[in-house]
Automatic annotation (TrEMBL), chains A, B:
PANTHER family: HTH-TYPE TRANSCRIPTIONAL REGULATOR RUTR (PTHR30055), TRANSCRIPTIONAL REGULATORY PROTEIN (PROBABLY TETR-FAMILY)-RELATED (PTHR30055:SF174). SUPFAM superfamilies: Homeodomain-like. This is TetR family transcriptional regulator. Residues 17-77 form the HTH tetR-type domain. It comes from Nocardia mangyaensis. Keywords: DNA-binding, Transcription, Transcription regulation. Pfam families: TetR_C_46, TetR_N. GO terms for molecular function: DNA-binding transcription factor activity; transcription cis-regulatory region binding.
């Protein structure tokens, strides 16, 4: 059986997994201009050309649907910037930052909303955003050749956490007016991590 | 005539200016756990021991009252960190950052809420926060001995904007667990600005 949307366009039949992803993706796109609570089940079902009842076949409740959207947005972003471990440390940093800039640029409206706008204050969404920031910080700290008892570790961990906010804000500001080119932006972000967080001795050790 | 609160405590009569400030301050304290829209005129009037009608004697509308609260919070913060121009550039930076940390610590609940919580998404409040960030960035750029046509100015301005987010996030994270002492935090924040934003040549010129 093929499914037709309300506009009568012929639709390919989706597997349950594909349908779930389609509904979540439609929901994630809506975060561009509204909070998670304002993502309407009726609107999503209409856009997907299915009934409200069928949507609840895939998600037990509106709350579960919203939670799935929040998780999806965070996972998609974190996956997009995952480091390529075939590269040297500094190349790995540049490569991940380039993908960070690309992700933010390609999802600019929802990225801004999730970090600063209506979508940023739902506890679910805010928790996922915070967990993602923590996961990025842990990832960076784990790459550094520091013993766990290093006395600078507490300061370093704090600085890296602050650096993630630096990257987010710099990209958000850059996207509005693009005062410098993309390559200059990437340079600034790459150079900022050692500048903010690392001691000269640690930088020398990393450069080997 | 002396005004008594609902609890019967004797109150000193306030001048119109003092009353206005009292109402705004009560509203600003409420931002610790709610958005600007949720600051209730009835609750504020009750806390101040005045009638709802009298509150509207000082503010033409609920909207105007909320706007006054948002403006007050931003102005109070900006005033708290204003640089002391009797100091040298680096001492001025340290002195302002110490007051930044003190302000955030003394207003921790409302500071967090205005930047990250329920109070952060009201357009009025978000606009004031953004304007304050812009004003801090302008203040810093204006202190630097750079000609307006300097080719690095666009990158520097962007970096300083990101640095403000670094300071905010680092302080917010620090306030939760205090992983390092206050002096170490101040050192980290002070050192981060030249490390991040300035070229070695500019740092040498400033120290000169």
């Amino acid at each position: 059986m093929s499914i037709r949307s309300s506009a009568g366009t012929k639709r390919v039949r989706l597997s349950p997994e594909e349908r779930r992803l389609q509904l979540i993706t439609l929901g994630a796109e809506m975060l561009a201009d509204r909070s998670l609570e304002e993502v309407s089940v009726d609107d999503i079902a209409k856009q997907a050309g299915i009934s409200r009842g069928l949507l609840f076949h895939y998600f037990a409740s509106k709350q579960e649907f919203h939670e799935a959207i929040a998780r999806h947005v965070s996972t998609e972003f974190f996956t997009a910037i995952m480091p390529n471990r075939d590269l040297s440390l500094f190349d790995m940093l540049r490569d991940s930052i380039e993908r960070f800039v690309d992700y933010a640029t390609e999802h600019s409206a929802s990225y801004r909303s999730v970090l600063r706008g209506p979508a940023s204050v739902t506890p679910d969404m805010a928790d996922y955003v915070n967990e993602t920031r923590g996961a990025i910080a842990d990832l960076i700290v784990s790459e550094l050749p520091l013993p766990p008892e290093d006395p600078d570790l507490a300061r370093l961990t704090l600085a890296i956490r602050g650096w993630i906010a630096f990257v987010e804000e710099t990209i958000l500001t850059w996207m509005v007016e693009k005062p410098i080119g993309r390559e200059d932006l990437v340079d600034l972000l790459v150079e900022s991590l050692p500048a903010l967080a690392l001691s000269p001795a640690l930088i020398a050790a990393l450069r080997g």
